[in-house]
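Attaching the record inline, Q. Sequence:
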Amino acid sequence: MTGFDSFLVVDWSASVKRAPARPSKDSIWLGFVQDGTCQTPIYCRTRTEAEARIARIIAGERAAGRRLLAGFDFPFGYPKGVARRITGSDDPLDLWDWLEARITDSETGENNRFDVAEAMNACFDAPGPFWGKTHADRWPGIPYRKAGIRFDEVAEKRACDVASKAASSCFQLCFPPTVGSQMLMGLPMLARLRRQQGVAIWPSDEWQGAPVVLAEIWPGLIEPAVKSAMANDPAAPIRDAVQVTLLARALSRVSAEDLNAMMTDLPVEAQQEAWILGTGHDEMLSDLATDGRPPAPPPLRDDCFAMPAGVDWTPVDDALAALRAGLHPVVRPERCAVPDACGRVLAAPVLAKRANPPTPNSAVDGYGFAYDSLPAGDPVLPLVAGRAAAGVPYDKAVPPGHAIRILTGAAVPVGVDTVILEEDTRQGAGQVAFRAGIKRGANTRKAGEDVDAGAELLPKGRVLTPADLALLAATGIGEVDVFQRLRVAVVSTGDELIEAGGTADLGQIFDANRPMLLAKIREWGMEAIDMGRIADDRTALRAALDDATSRADVILTSGGASAGDEDHVSALLSEAGAMQQWRIALKPGRPLALGLWQGAPVFGLPGNPVAALVCTLIFARPALGLLAGAGWQEPQVFHVPAAFEKSKKPGRREYLRARIRNGRAEVFASEGSGRISGISWAEGLVELPDAAATIRQGDPVRYYPFGSFAL
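Structure, as predicted:
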């Protein structure tokens, strides 16, 4: 036992409207474990309802004599210095009382948090630190975006945010994640709960021995367990409900010793800034939440696509290096039977269960004997009764000076070390005769000649081939640890798109990207999820991205990746706070929007099919392989003579649609990126360097067959 009998975990909300009657995401959820038993997660439609429910749970647990640890998923304090600027005190609980006296809330969700945040910003000299608002023309004291806020008066993040690698900031009031608004609407509630008798705040109050302890928690600490549970539940559960239940379960399973370490071994910053319970113990908590199932890898960080400061036009090699450095596998391991494992990615090295061959055996049909027992001259050896065949071994020793009939694959009997091919012998009268000159050990295979028992057969990250399955089976392997197939969602965007086969009106085009990208994903052994076509409507695209993250590990979009009025992919990723707009120095395909949506990486590809294919092959393909657990793989390149001439300007790397004929690389007649017929005509790409170049007939060029991009 941990010293607590019950565990409550609260997923809070700063919503300005009542949640729907039907349980939904982005609302308030309570996870509750009582005496080791997980209760059904509790759904609350308003903050007022949730506060009353929490108060009743506290009262009920106290009345029953059960000690309660209640965790809330928003920060209990701001970075060092904020409380003093606003209240004149370093005590974070004084700021709670200050907020409680000013924040107003209602049953409908309407509140004054932006007014209060504006007053807090007025306590600082420079713009901010609070930023983000629902109306750009209201609350002039709150910057609409983070750009321009220097965070030199106070840090942007607390020490525990850095230690736990939390992506969010307590100063962000709008655009997901709205942690700052959750704090403003949550801390006054905690101040009221604290006034109840016996309720202590960790780590600010004297909490040891208190009947009820309130602590800050963060579900991101058990993200692998949450992803695992979501992936294993076909009913598509609500994520918020899952994570509060799992975190409450994990806390209930922590040993008393470990929980004591979590709650007492804290840095000095915790007294002013508060602390996330479990920081530094995320792997243990995730394991305790998963019931022993293999956890998923940690989530990607918001800066996984970040380029070095000052980079404008990104060279191709720099972009590839940044992708490789920022990504890691996002799929969890599972067991798979060897016959079903073709195309799967190994999640762990495979060791041979036994040697291959397991015993010495014959490589031919013939006759076996001991080489040292051969007489001088041409041997004539008497045959022993019986024979050795594959699967039917000879269970006696062959006497010196004798031979035995042996068939291909048969285990070599005791007393035999050499086999002569049947065609090189004559038989009769129970004897076998052959010419002198055979070498010792001829036509035999040694035990372990192919593979020794315990040897590593295949490394982690190997994409299994049919030949690999034969090797695994031959050494006794029936099951292997593989990564789950990477699930890749594909979304096409644009008002102009219609489905192929329909009737196109003026200005409309058929969606060519989706069929191409879905086919590529399947070709690479991944699970392709078709999310359909989405019009140039931000609300519809947001809903599609939300849906995609519940069904896939990665999202590919085409169109809307630039910076125009209708480029909603870029706009939404920017709102999510995890967006990088890469202008890559290549032709075709310059704009590439990269970001995270609810933790899932998004590759915003250009809308032009030629550019979409090039960006998919050059950038998305190696990144998807890494995310799938197969590691970063470079496509195989061949240097071949050119069957074309071209003068190229400096500044951008170019990829020409090409194919090999008569040993030379010929390129498509037009370089126009709208010529879709060129990618059908082509069998690969010719790569021209970033620098200026003049290509003449016969000059060597770099050629990538499309097949070299296979997983």
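Residues 562-566 have pLDDT under 50 and may be disordered. The first helix runs from residue 47 to 63.

More tomorrow.
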